[in-house]
Amino acid sequence: MFAESTEAAGWFLENAWLIPLIPAVAFFLILGFGKRMPRGGSEIGIASMLASLVIAAGTAYQWVQRVDAPVAEGEHALARGSFGFARTFSEEAAEAGHEVAPVISTLDWFDIGRLHVSIGSHIDGLAVTLLLLVAFISTLVQIYSTEYVRGDRRYTHFFASITLFSAGMLTMVLAPNMLQFILGWEIMGLCSFLLIGHWWEETANSKAALKAFFTVRVGDMGLLVGTAALFALFGTMEIGEINEQAANFAGDNKGMLLFAAIALFIACIGKSGQFPLHTWLPDAMAGPTPVSSLLHSSTMVVAGVFLVARLYPVFHVGLDINVAGQSFNLIAVIGGITVLIAAGLAFVQDDIKKVLAYSTVSQLGYMMLGLGVGAWTGAVFHIFTHAFFKCALFLCAGSIAHTGSHHSFDMKKDMGGLRKKMPVTFVVWIVSTMALMGVPFFSGFFSKDEIIDSAKHNHYTVFYFVAIIGAAMTAAYMTRATYLTFFGKARGGAAHFVHGHDDAHDTHDAHADAHGHDAHGHDDHHAPAHHSAPLPFAKTDSSWQITVPLIILGVLAIFSGYLNAPALGIHWFEHMTESSIGAGSAMSVPPPPEFSWAAAAPGLLLVLAGFVVSLLISKAVFGEKKTALQGLTQRNSLLGAGHKFLVNKYYLDALYENVIVKAVAYPIARAAYWTNQHVLDGIVNAVGIGGKRTGELVYKYVDQGLVDGAVNGSGATARGAGGALQPVQSGKVNLYGALLFGAAAVGALVLVLVNS
Amino acid sequence: MLVNNFLILGAVLFSIGVYGVIARKNAVLVLMSIELILNSVNINLLAFDRINGTQDGAVFALYIIAIAAAEVGVGLAMVLLIFRNRKTIALDDLSEMKG
Fold first, then answer.
1. Mind giving me the DSSP string for A1-29?
2. Who is most buried in A451, A462, A755, B35, counting CB within 10 A?
3. In this predicted model, what pLDDT tens digit does every residue of A3-45 receive, in sequence order?
4. Where along chain B do its domains lie?
5. Which of A112, A730, A741 lies nearest to residue B55, judging by beta carbons?
6. Taking CA A471 as the corner, what is the angle to CA A466 and CA A476, rounded to the nearest 5 degrees?
């Protein structure tokens, strides 16, 4: 039915708007019919995500074809298809041979004045990457969730929210204009609130949900302001046009562009958990683990990075990135700070999910740093690879808690020695950890190394050092977490699991203890009889719904990097996405540097050093042998102070709650009190005294003589009327409503009769 | 003309809303019904806006949306407080105002 336009692009490219629409519809279906379905609505969610995945895969395939064989020049076709879809295929100014125009299909949404807003899809390399990623990860996470939240009391609502969550991200990813972008962005904000607070019966969880929502909200103001500024500057909401105008920016009000870039970046700080608004992300661990996994890998937190990548010309020109002689800019500075402080915090966490959460914050810092130094491809590719291994790590953590440690995430109390009993989880964890550390030939290496290399090559020397130190810290804290989880002696819940249920005698207390800090609220979730079958070669590991997604993600954690491996001379991903960077007279993004092992060596050596040092310290501190290092933070006051500083998260939470909130709230309250006492009371008193004098005069002459008689008469009338009307005053709100509408109806009738 | 259909939709929504306000006992549902009424008015405003070819109706509708948001905020806060104090939000039980 769309036959007239298929020769221009391809069915999938033009109908990519179906990708977010299917899960959005599925959300309503799950809400409406989920509880009556045999599997509580999860089948609708999974089916919708699979459908999205198929269409996204088709879109990706056709996009690759489009890039490899660019369509002929001069196709400014404006074909009006059926259902009122106005299709525009704008071949942007394409001087360079590799420039591939995006495919934009839109439907008119509304017009207000000169503002024309449409809704639809804007498909280019960047959008295709994220579409495929989000649909893929969402599908796996939903399959995993069928086992993980089995028997939960809000099972159906969980799947409804998580499906809408993916729909929000997909809506945002293919947004052709800023308004649709904001729509998707806000849907995600809402769903993250719902999902983080999924087990809201516990105060901590509902507080974490509120904190996430409000903190992100602070940033969201920036998105609105920034969009308004862009509209004021360029007079359009279309992302393609904004990018083109920004890339060729030559106006003299560059300050406005700078303002828009900063405002939009504040939104990114909030959404992507960058310093100083990163505090909500670790608290968001209160949600179920599949949610953390989805939130931290491909949706929500990468939205901020995606915004910067999407509107890269605005930031690149507005913030003077890659201008000669400039070695700092806002994005790189914030990214760099985030890399280091989050990595530092990851060292002192006992909760395995919090280690991963800070690790995500730190890796998001890398992406921002990459965008800040002009490594667009590296940063976007890091989004891509990071999604697989971070999702795998979170799902591993969930698998451990679900099967191995009695729903506890405390590495020190309830884990250790799990590697033999949970082989699949262990192998996937190790592979993903190596990818995260940036070990050569794992996926994280290729993306992270390109960011680090570009920082050096583009003369951002400070950030080069920040990045390699961050890489070393990543290796160190992941080694610590791995050691605590899988090696050493089994403790608490894990001991109960590893040594079987026979010697439950001495672990009984630990088991009860594990229940005490169980972050979940699922009481009806403990019966092992409900668990499905595990894979045949790993009988003691989690069931197949958990391990199969883990294996798929583990494989991708190795091989996804080979789409763009400069070390092996592969630049395929770069070739596919480079048309999304934007090109114009005002911006010139330097090409990624040539890879050489000599340039990568310092970073790799530091990673190795971080790994070795951390392994030795972990063995000494957490191992079975007594050593001098144990309890060092208690004995050495300097180290103890540092430890306390980290445990208290640099006192940022205290700063926000005690200092800023009080500093803002108290003066306002005091000013209001002063105004009340002095200004308002003065006026009231003056009026009162004047009124009293007048009253006395009036009383003497008017009241006593003239009015009293009338009052007595009217009083009697009113009393009679009141008595008659008393039954109407029933106290029933519904009755009042009925009377109100009845009177309004009579009034309307009178109006019509009088006017006709 | 299509505008008639919008007006009919508005009228239907309005009637459903009025029915809800009168017949429902749950305070939250009454609030939702009030929302329906407000939005039916919005639809009317936008329909007339289209007939007259101006933007006044859209502006009014935006105002109504903003005010409706505030109204729901206040309303839900009241419902919450009532629920805390009395463990019920059935409107029939709230008859202190009986004269």
1. --GGGTTTS-HHHHTTTHHHHHHHHHHHH
2. A451
3. 334 445 677 877 888 888 888 888 888 888 877 777 777 888 8
4. 2-93
5. A112
6. 125
